Amino acid sequence: MKKFHIVGAFDRHNYGDILFPLIHSEIIKRATRGAAEINYYAITPADLTTQGGVTTQSIKALIQKSPKEDEVVIMSGGDILAADWPTMAGHVSSPATYFCLRALFKILGFSISNSLIKGIWLQKNDFPYILSKKTIKSKVYYSCVGGSWFIPKNDRHHLDRVSSELRKVDGISVRDTRIQKLLATKNIKARLVPDSALIMSDIYPLASLETRNWKASLRKSHNFSAKNFIVFQCAKNCTSNNLKHITNQLSEISNKTGTSILLLPIGRATGHEDHVVLEQVYNSLSQNGVPCAIQDSAHVLDIMASIAFSKSYIGTSLHGAITSYSFGHKVCGIMTEKVKKLDDFVSTWMHTEDFHLAPKTDFSESFIALTQKSHSISNTRKLESHKKAIYDELSLYR
Protein backbone atom coordinates (compact mmCIF):
# COMPACT_ATOMS: atom_id res chain seq x y z
CA MET A 1 0.00 0.00 0.00
CA LYS A 2 1.38 3.40 -1.02
CA LYS A 3 1.82 5.79 1.90
CA PHE A 4 1.38 9.56 1.63
CA HIS A 5 2.09 12.07 4.39
CA ILE A 6 0.49 15.49 3.83
CA VAL A 7 2.00 18.30 5.89
CA GLY A 8 0.66 21.80 6.47
CA ALA A 9 -0.97 24.21 8.92
CA PHE A 10 -4.06 22.02 9.28
CA ASP A 11 -4.29 22.41 13.07
CA ARG A 12 -5.99 25.83 13.18
CA HIS A 13 -9.13 27.39 11.74
CA ASN A 14 -7.97 29.13 8.62
CA TYR A 15 -10.02 28.35 5.52
CA GLY A 16 -7.19 27.80 3.01
CA ASP A 17 -5.21 25.62 5.39
CA ILE A 18 -8.26 23.42 5.98
CA LEU A 19 -8.77 23.09 2.22
CA PHE A 20 -5.30 21.86 1.26
CA PRO A 21 -5.45 18.32 2.72
CA LEU A 22 -8.95 17.79 1.32
CA ILE A 23 -7.88 18.67 -2.21
CA HIS A 24 -4.61 16.75 -2.13
CA SER A 25 -6.32 13.68 -0.66
CA GLU A 26 -8.93 13.66 -3.40
CA ILE A 27 -6.31 13.88 -6.14
CA ILE A 28 -4.27 11.08 -4.54
CA LYS A 29 -7.33 8.83 -4.34
CA ARG A 30 -8.21 9.48 -7.98
CA ALA A 31 -4.66 8.95 -9.27
CA THR A 32 -3.40 6.05 -7.13
CA ARG A 33 -3.94 2.52 -8.34
CA GLY A 34 -4.97 0.33 -5.45
CA ALA A 35 -5.29 1.44 -1.85
CA ALA A 36 -3.46 4.47 -0.48
CA GLU A 37 -2.77 5.35 3.14
CA ILE A 38 -2.95 9.09 3.76
CA ASN A 39 -1.78 10.70 7.00
CA TYR A 40 -1.90 14.37 8.01
CA TYR A 41 0.61 16.41 10.01
CA ALA A 42 0.84 19.89 11.48
CA ILE A 43 2.89 21.39 14.29
CA THR A 44 0.34 20.11 16.83
CA PRO A 45 -2.05 17.15 16.99
CA ALA A 46 -5.55 18.48 16.33
CA ASP A 47 -9.01 17.44 15.19
CA LEU A 48 -10.78 19.88 12.86
CA THR A 49 -13.26 17.36 11.47
CA THR A 50 -16.25 19.28 12.88
CA GLN A 51 -15.19 22.20 10.65
CA GLY A 52 -14.70 19.91 7.64
CA GLY A 53 -10.96 19.51 8.17
CA VAL A 54 -8.75 16.57 9.11
CA THR A 55 -7.20 15.04 12.21
CA THR A 56 -3.49 15.78 12.42
CA GLN A 57 -0.50 14.23 14.09
CA SER A 58 2.53 16.35 14.95
CA ILE A 59 5.37 16.89 12.49
CA LYS A 60 7.69 15.81 15.28
CA ALA A 61 5.92 12.43 15.23
CA LEU A 62 6.45 12.17 11.47
CA ILE A 63 10.18 12.78 11.86
CA GLN A 64 10.36 10.19 14.64
CA LYS A 65 8.56 7.62 12.46
CA SER A 66 11.25 8.08 9.79
CA PRO A 67 9.10 7.32 6.72
CA LYS A 68 10.67 4.92 4.21
CA GLU A 69 12.26 5.94 0.92
CA ASP A 70 9.26 4.84 -1.16
CA GLU A 71 6.82 6.91 0.91
CA VAL A 72 5.81 10.42 -0.17
CA VAL A 73 5.75 13.57 1.95
CA ILE A 74 3.81 16.49 0.45
CA MET A 75 4.39 19.93 1.93
CA SER A 76 0.97 21.23 1.10
CA GLY A 77 0.31 24.77 0.04
CA GLY A 78 0.12 27.93 2.06
CA ASP A 79 2.73 30.52 2.97
CA ILE A 80 4.90 27.88 4.62
CA LEU A 81 8.40 28.56 3.28
CA ALA A 82 9.02 31.59 5.49
CA ALA A 83 7.09 30.35 8.54
CA ASP A 84 8.81 30.66 11.93
CA TRP A 85 8.19 29.00 15.30
CA PRO A 86 6.97 32.07 17.24
CA THR A 87 4.31 32.91 14.64
CA MET A 88 3.09 29.36 14.09
CA ALA A 89 3.02 28.62 17.82
CA GLY A 90 1.00 31.81 18.29
CA HIS A 91 -1.64 30.76 15.77
CA VAL A 92 -2.48 27.64 17.82
CA SER A 93 -2.36 29.46 21.19
CA SER A 94 -4.55 31.90 23.10
CA PRO A 95 -4.64 35.58 22.06
CA ALA A 96 -2.60 36.48 25.16
CA THR A 97 0.10 33.93 24.29
CA TYR A 98 0.08 35.10 20.66
CA PHE A 99 0.67 38.69 21.81
CA CYS A 100 3.58 37.61 24.06
CA LEU A 101 5.18 35.60 21.25
CA ARG A 102 4.94 38.51 18.83
CA ALA A 103 6.51 40.79 21.45
CA LEU A 104 9.31 38.25 21.95
CA PHE A 105 9.89 38.21 18.20
CA LYS A 106 10.21 41.99 18.07
CA ILE A 107 12.52 42.20 21.09
CA LEU A 108 14.86 39.29 20.36
CA GLY A 109 14.69 39.25 16.58
CA PHE A 110 13.96 36.38 14.24
CA SER A 111 16.90 34.01 14.79
CA ILE A 112 16.99 34.04 18.59
CA SER A 113 13.21 33.91 19.10
CA ASN A 114 12.85 31.12 16.51
CA SER A 115 15.53 28.99 18.20
CA LEU A 116 14.08 29.70 21.65
CA ILE A 117 10.52 28.65 20.80
CA LYS A 118 11.78 25.63 18.87
CA GLY A 119 13.63 24.52 22.00
CA ILE A 120 10.74 25.20 24.37
CA TRP A 121 8.39 23.21 22.12
CA LEU A 122 11.00 20.42 21.84
CA GLN A 123 10.84 20.48 18.04
CA LYS A 124 13.26 18.65 15.75
CA ASN A 125 13.16 20.74 12.56
CA ASP A 126 14.63 24.25 12.42
CA PHE A 127 11.51 25.82 10.91
CA PRO A 128 7.89 24.66 11.30
CA TYR A 129 7.19 23.59 7.72
CA ILE A 130 10.64 22.89 6.31
CA LEU A 131 11.40 19.18 5.85
CA SER A 132 14.02 17.64 3.56
CA LYS A 133 16.41 14.73 3.23
CA LYS A 134 18.23 16.37 6.14
CA THR A 135 15.52 15.11 8.50
CA ILE A 136 13.69 12.28 6.66
CA LYS A 137 14.56 9.67 4.00
CA SER A 138 11.30 9.63 2.03
CA LYS A 139 10.46 11.59 -1.11
CA VAL A 140 9.63 15.23 -0.29
CA TYR A 141 7.65 17.57 -2.55
CA TYR A 142 6.66 21.19 -1.91
CA SER A 143 3.32 21.78 -3.59
CA CYS A 144 2.32 25.25 -4.87
CA VAL A 145 3.73 26.96 -1.77
CA GLY A 146 4.31 30.60 -0.87
CA GLY A 147 6.92 32.56 1.05
CA SER A 148 5.72 36.14 1.14
CA TRP A 149 7.12 36.76 4.64
CA PHE A 150 10.69 36.47 3.41
CA ILE A 151 10.33 39.98 1.99
CA PRO A 152 9.35 42.02 5.10
CA LYS A 153 11.64 39.96 7.36
CA ASN A 154 14.59 40.73 5.06
CA ASP A 155 16.59 38.08 6.91
CA ARG A 156 19.14 36.64 4.49
CA HIS A 157 20.26 34.09 7.06
CA HIS A 158 16.72 32.66 7.23
CA LEU A 159 16.44 32.48 3.44
CA ASP A 160 19.89 30.88 3.19
CA ARG A 161 19.01 28.17 5.72
CA VAL A 162 15.68 27.36 4.07
CA SER A 163 17.27 27.31 0.61
CA SER A 164 19.94 24.88 1.76
CA GLU A 165 17.21 22.42 2.73
CA LEU A 166 15.20 22.97 -0.44
CA ARG A 167 18.19 21.70 -2.40
CA LYS A 168 17.60 18.35 -0.67
CA VAL A 169 14.01 17.73 -1.83
CA ASP A 170 12.51 15.91 -4.82
CA GLY A 171 10.55 18.82 -6.23
CA ILE A 172 9.17 22.27 -5.47
CA SER A 173 6.50 24.45 -7.03
CA VAL A 174 5.58 27.96 -5.92
CA ARG A 175 2.43 29.96 -6.50
CA ASP A 176 3.74 33.41 -7.49
CA THR A 177 6.57 34.95 -9.47
CA ARG A 178 7.98 36.96 -6.56
CA ILE A 179 8.96 33.89 -4.51
CA GLN A 180 10.08 32.03 -7.66
CA LYS A 181 12.54 34.85 -8.45
CA LEU A 182 13.68 35.05 -4.83
CA LEU A 183 14.49 31.33 -4.73
CA ALA A 184 16.24 31.62 -8.08
CA THR A 185 18.78 33.96 -6.43
CA LYS A 186 19.71 30.93 -4.29
CA ASN A 187 19.88 28.60 -7.29
CA ILE A 188 16.58 26.91 -6.45
CA LYS A 189 14.62 26.05 -9.60
CA ALA A 190 10.97 26.16 -8.56
CA ARG A 191 8.11 25.48 -10.97
CA LEU A 192 5.49 28.24 -11.15
CA VAL A 193 2.05 26.69 -10.52
CA PRO A 194 -1.16 28.27 -9.16
CA ASP A 195 -2.28 27.58 -5.61
CA SER A 196 -3.68 24.03 -5.55
CA ALA A 197 -6.94 25.23 -3.96
CA LEU A 198 -7.91 26.71 -7.34
CA ILE A 199 -9.28 23.34 -8.48
CA MET A 200 -11.85 23.27 -5.65
CA SER A 201 -14.74 24.00 -8.03
CA ASP A 202 -13.96 20.73 -9.85
CA ILE A 203 -13.91 18.71 -6.64
CA TYR A 204 -16.85 20.53 -5.03
CA PRO A 205 -19.07 21.67 -7.94
CA LEU A 206 -22.11 23.88 -7.36
CA ALA A 207 -24.45 20.89 -7.52
CA SER A 208 -22.56 19.29 -4.64
CA LEU A 209 -22.44 22.45 -2.54
CA GLU A 210 -26.14 23.03 -3.12
CA THR A 211 -26.90 19.91 -1.07
CA ARG A 212 -25.42 21.59 2.02
CA ASN A 213 -27.79 23.68 4.09
CA TRP A 214 -25.29 26.55 4.20
CA LYS A 215 -27.98 29.23 4.30
CA ALA A 216 -29.38 27.88 7.58
CA SER A 217 -26.43 29.33 9.49
CA LEU A 218 -26.84 32.87 8.11
CA ARG A 219 -27.88 35.59 10.56
CA LYS A 220 -29.86 38.04 8.43
CA SER A 221 -30.97 41.66 8.65
CA HIS A 222 -33.15 44.00 6.56
CA ASN A 223 -34.37 41.54 3.91
CA PHE A 224 -31.00 40.07 2.98
CA SER A 225 -31.28 38.36 -0.43
CA ALA A 226 -29.57 34.97 -0.79
CA LYS A 227 -30.02 35.32 -4.56
CA ASN A 228 -28.38 38.71 -4.99
CA PHE A 229 -25.40 39.23 -2.69
CA ILE A 230 -21.68 39.86 -2.63
CA VAL A 231 -19.26 38.51 -0.01
CA PHE A 232 -17.11 40.71 2.18
CA GLN A 233 -14.33 39.42 4.46
CA CYS A 234 -11.54 41.06 6.43
CA ALA A 235 -8.98 40.01 9.03
CA LYS A 236 -8.75 41.73 12.41
CA ASN A 237 -5.04 42.47 12.17
CA CYS A 238 -5.50 44.31 8.84
CA THR A 239 -8.66 46.32 9.34
CA SER A 240 -9.60 46.78 13.01
CA ASN A 241 -8.82 50.52 12.85
CA ASN A 242 -10.87 51.12 9.68
CA LEU A 243 -14.23 49.52 10.45
CA LYS A 244 -16.31 52.72 10.22
CA HIS A 245 -14.84 53.49 6.80
CA ILE A 246 -15.38 49.89 5.67
CA THR A 247 -19.02 50.06 6.77
CA ASN A 248 -19.51 53.25 4.75
CA GLN A 249 -17.89 51.65 1.68
CA LEU A 250 -20.16 48.58 1.88
CA SER A 251 -23.24 50.75 2.46
CA GLU A 252 -22.39 52.74 -0.67
CA ILE A 253 -22.05 49.56 -2.74
CA SER A 254 -25.37 48.18 -1.52
CA ASN A 255 -27.21 51.49 -1.99
CA LYS A 256 -25.89 52.05 -5.52
CA THR A 257 -26.16 48.47 -6.82
CA GLY A 258 -29.05 46.98 -4.84
CA THR A 259 -27.00 43.99 -3.73
CA SER A 260 -27.03 42.49 -0.25
CA ILE A 261 -23.81 42.08 1.76
CA LEU A 262 -22.76 38.73 3.24
CA LEU A 263 -20.05 39.05 5.89
CA LEU A 264 -17.95 35.90 5.86
CA PRO A 265 -15.41 34.95 8.57
CA ILE A 266 -12.79 32.84 6.83
CA GLY A 267 -10.08 32.67 9.49
CA ARG A 268 -11.01 32.26 13.14
CA ALA A 269 -7.58 31.21 14.44
CA THR A 270 -5.63 33.48 16.76
CA GLY A 271 -3.96 36.16 14.67
CA HIS A 272 -6.75 36.14 12.07
CA GLU A 273 -10.03 36.48 14.03
CA ASP A 274 -12.20 37.61 11.12
CA HIS A 275 -15.35 36.92 13.16
CA VAL A 276 -14.44 39.57 15.75
CA VAL A 277 -14.32 42.50 13.32
CA LEU A 278 -17.05 41.24 10.99
CA GLU A 279 -19.49 41.06 13.91
CA GLN A 280 -18.91 44.77 14.43
CA VAL A 281 -19.40 45.50 10.73
CA TYR A 282 -22.61 43.44 10.73
CA ASN A 283 -24.02 45.43 13.64
CA SER A 284 -23.13 48.74 11.97
CA LEU A 285 -24.63 47.76 8.60
CA SER A 286 -27.80 46.57 10.35
CA GLN A 287 -28.11 49.90 12.15
CA ASN A 288 -27.74 51.65 8.79
CA GLY A 289 -30.58 49.60 7.31
CA VAL A 290 -28.36 47.76 4.80
CA PRO A 291 -29.60 44.29 3.73
CA CYS A 292 -26.86 42.09 5.18
CA ALA A 293 -26.06 38.77 6.82
CA ILE A 294 -23.18 37.10 8.60
CA GLN A 295 -22.18 33.45 8.18
CA ASP A 296 -22.05 31.78 11.62
CA SER A 297 -20.87 28.39 10.35
CA ALA A 298 -17.14 27.67 10.56
CA HIS A 299 -17.41 24.62 8.29
CA VAL A 300 -15.11 24.81 5.27
CA LEU A 301 -17.84 23.80 2.81
CA ASP A 302 -20.29 26.39 4.15
CA ILE A 303 -17.59 29.03 3.69
CA MET A 304 -16.94 27.75 0.17
CA ALA A 305 -20.66 27.69 -0.69
CA SER A 306 -21.11 31.24 0.59
CA ILE A 307 -18.60 32.48 -2.00
CA ALA A 308 -19.57 30.03 -4.74
CA PHE A 309 -23.21 31.21 -4.72
CA SER A 310 -22.31 34.91 -4.37
CA LYS A 311 -21.94 37.36 -7.23
CA SER A 312 -18.34 38.32 -6.36
CA TYR A 313 -15.87 38.79 -3.51
CA ILE A 314 -14.20 41.64 -1.60
CA GLY A 315 -11.64 40.95 1.11
CA THR A 316 -8.15 40.42 2.50
CA SER A 317 -8.11 36.60 2.31
CA LEU A 318 -6.05 35.01 -0.44
CA HIS A 319 -8.20 31.88 -0.37
CA GLY A 320 -11.37 33.91 -0.38
CA ALA A 321 -10.09 35.41 -3.65
CA ILE A 322 -9.04 32.00 -4.97
CA THR A 323 -12.48 30.55 -4.20
CA SER A 324 -14.17 33.41 -6.03
CA TYR A 325 -11.89 32.95 -9.04
CA SER A 326 -12.32 29.16 -9.01
CA PHE A 327 -16.10 29.59 -9.32
CA GLY A 328 -15.77 32.23 -12.03
CA HIS A 329 -16.39 35.41 -10.01
CA LYS A 330 -14.43 38.65 -10.04
CA VAL A 331 -12.21 39.62 -7.12
CA CYS A 332 -11.60 42.86 -5.25
CA GLY A 333 -8.65 42.49 -2.89
CA ILE A 334 -8.21 45.07 -0.14
CA MET A 335 -5.34 46.07 2.18
CA THR A 336 -2.85 44.64 -0.30
CA GLU A 337 -0.13 46.92 1.06
CA LYS A 338 -0.19 44.57 4.07
CA VAL A 339 -1.37 41.33 2.46
CA LYS A 340 1.41 40.86 -0.09
CA LYS A 341 0.51 37.24 -0.89
CA LEU A 342 -2.94 38.35 -2.09
CA ASP A 343 -1.37 40.93 -4.40
CA ASP A 344 1.26 38.43 -5.59
CA PHE A 345 -1.18 35.65 -6.48
CA VAL A 346 -3.89 37.74 -8.11
CA SER A 347 -1.37 39.75 -10.15
CA THR A 348 0.37 36.56 -11.27
CA TRP A 349 -2.66 34.52 -12.32
CA MET A 350 -5.80 36.58 -12.95
CA HIS A 351 -6.76 38.50 -16.06
CA THR A 352 -6.47 42.26 -15.44
CA GLU A 353 -10.14 42.88 -16.29
CA ASP A 354 -11.26 40.39 -13.63
CA PHE A 355 -9.84 41.95 -10.48
CA HIS A 356 -9.07 45.14 -8.61
CA LEU A 357 -6.48 45.48 -5.82
CA ALA A 358 -6.95 48.25 -3.26
CA PRO A 359 -3.84 49.09 -1.19
CA LYS A 360 -6.01 50.24 1.74
CA THR A 361 -9.78 50.22 2.39
CA ASP A 362 -11.01 52.55 -0.37
CA PHE A 363 -12.75 50.11 -2.68
CA SER A 364 -16.41 50.98 -3.29
CA GLU A 365 -16.07 53.02 -6.50
CA SER A 366 -13.50 50.65 -8.01
CA PHE A 367 -15.60 47.61 -7.14
CA ILE A 368 -18.72 49.11 -8.69
CA ALA A 369 -16.75 49.91 -11.86
CA LEU A 370 -15.20 46.40 -11.91
CA THR A 371 -18.59 44.68 -11.76
CA GLN A 372 -20.70 47.21 -13.67
CA LYS A 373 -21.07 45.01 -16.75
CA SER A 374 -20.69 41.62 -15.09
CA HIS A 375 -19.60 39.95 -11.86
CA SER A 376 -18.32 36.96 -13.83
CA ILE A 377 -14.72 36.67 -15.01
CA SER A 378 -14.09 37.40 -18.68
CA ASN A 379 -11.32 34.88 -19.29
CA THR A 380 -12.57 31.39 -18.40
CA ARG A 381 -10.05 29.77 -20.76
CA LYS A 382 -7.22 31.17 -18.65
CA LEU A 383 -8.80 29.70 -15.50
CA GLU A 384 -9.06 26.25 -17.08
CA SER A 385 -5.42 26.36 -18.19
CA HIS A 386 -4.41 27.20 -14.61
CA LYS A 387 -6.37 24.23 -13.29
CA LYS A 388 -4.68 21.93 -15.79
CA ALA A 389 -1.27 23.12 -14.59
CA ILE A 390 -2.24 22.15 -11.04
CA TYR A 391 -3.39 18.66 -12.07
CA ASP A 392 -0.15 18.18 -13.99
CA GLU A 393 1.87 19.23 -10.94
CA LEU A 394 0.01 17.03 -8.46
CA SER A 395 0.42 14.02 -10.76
CA LEU A 396 4.19 14.17 -10.15
CA TYR A 397 3.90 13.27 -6.47
CA ARG A 398 4.37 9.51 -6.63
Q: What is the CATH architecture assignment of the largest domain?
A: 3-Layer(aba) Sandwich
Q: In terms of quaternary structure, what is this?
A: single chain
- Output the radius of gyration: 21 Å
The largest sheet has its strands arranged as 3-4-2-1-5-6-7-8
Please mark out the parts with pLDDT under 50 across 5 or more consecutive residues, or reply none.
none
Largest sheet: 8 strands, mixed
Describe this structure in words.
GO terms for molecular function: transferase activity. This is Polysaccharide pyruvyl transferase family protein. Residues 64-334 form the Polysaccharide pyruvyl transferase domain. The protein has 398 residues and is an alpha/beta fold. The protein folds into 2 domains: 2-193, Rossmann fold (3-Layer(aba) Sandwich); 209-378, Glycogen Phosphorylase B (Rossmann fold). It has helices at residues 15-31, 59-65, 85-91, 95-108, 110-120, 150-153, 156-166, 177-184, 200-203, 206-209, 236-239, 243-257, 274-287, 300-308, 318-326, 340-349, 364-370, 380-394, and strands at 2-7, 36-42, 46-47, 55-58, 72-76, 139-145, 171-174, 191-192, 218-221, 229-233, 260-263, 292-295, 313-315, 331-334, 355-358. Helix 15 (318-326) links the parallel strand 13 and strand 14 (331-334). Helix 3 runs antiparallel to helix 4 (95-108), helix 4 (95-108) packs across helix 5 (110-120) and helix 12 runs parallel beside helix 17. It is globular, with a radius of gyration of 21 Å. The model has no long low-confidence stretch (mean pLDDT 93).
